[in-house]
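Problem 12. The chain below contains 339 residues. Write out its predicted structure in token notation.
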Amino acid sequence: MAVAKKPFASVKKYVQEFKTRRPHTSFMLTRKRDYRRSLSLPGYFAFTRSVNKTLIKYRKVLLPLAIVYGLLSALFIGVGSQDTYSTLTQTLQETGNEVFAGNLSELGKAGLVFFSIAGSGLNTAPTESQQIFTVILALLIWLTTVWLLRTLLAGNKAKMRDGIYNAGTPIIGTFFVGIVLVLQLIPVGIAMIGYSAADSTGLLSSGVAAMLFWAAALLLAILSLYLVTSTFFALIIVTLPGMYPGRALRTAGDMVIGRRLRILLRVLWMFGCIAVAWAIILIPFILIDSGLKQLLPVIEGLPIIPIVLLILGVLSFIWSASYVYLLYRKVVDDDAKPA
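Solution.
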């Protein structure tokens, strides 16, 4: 009889420990005193500046890292298609000179090309090997950036090659946490599939049906955002020595309890900064590329924009990994403060 009760006792103990760690229960009213937790963070702009200052401070290590992984990406994955870009920029071919003459209305067309490029990445359907290399390189860039920042901020000296050689140990654990992240994005994927179906059938043209659809899509998006907030921290925690993916996910969940919304807003701010940076950098390059290729048709086949996209992608990934890591450190430091 005791043997039969043992599994239930273990489950009961786990539930009790879980409630102790996380006093708030989803979809249940919780007293504010039970879930309120401190989180002292710099302002949005101040924290972003601190991230940029950190990257500038260690640029001699991180810039070579970006170059190495950029070359590896070009070698194993390839750059965007110049033909695809040429097709997207046909509308600018006749008006490029007007932009340089001061006709700022043409910036709108460049903006449309920017959104098309940002959405497609100028890539045709990737092969299976390209998909595998994309995942591997993304994991390695993330792990190397986190390893270097952890080492450098601890006051130790580190070279770029040290990060490349030593950062790959937790790649399996990071891969499993990444799978969890992808699964948590399924609600958003369902919303996107639903949008495609609704748009093709004309459902969105109906007032009531469109309102119900957007309400459901918003709920699905909120669900994914709710789930992935802690997983971003789990991608950092799993890089600690001896850490397992499940434990990293539990620890990250415990960290964000009572302050999930504040951390989520910081993560959304990160993506917003990346989008603005891409617009500020890529739109002028689109205009310059269009003007130069009208003046010098001989360079028509030169893949300027695909190369810029590759550079922006690598730099954005390193910046986002640094942002999440430094945000994680701020939360850890806040927890370490005496009550």
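Discussion. The radius of gyration is 24 Å. Students who got a different answer should revisit the alignment rule from Section 12.3.
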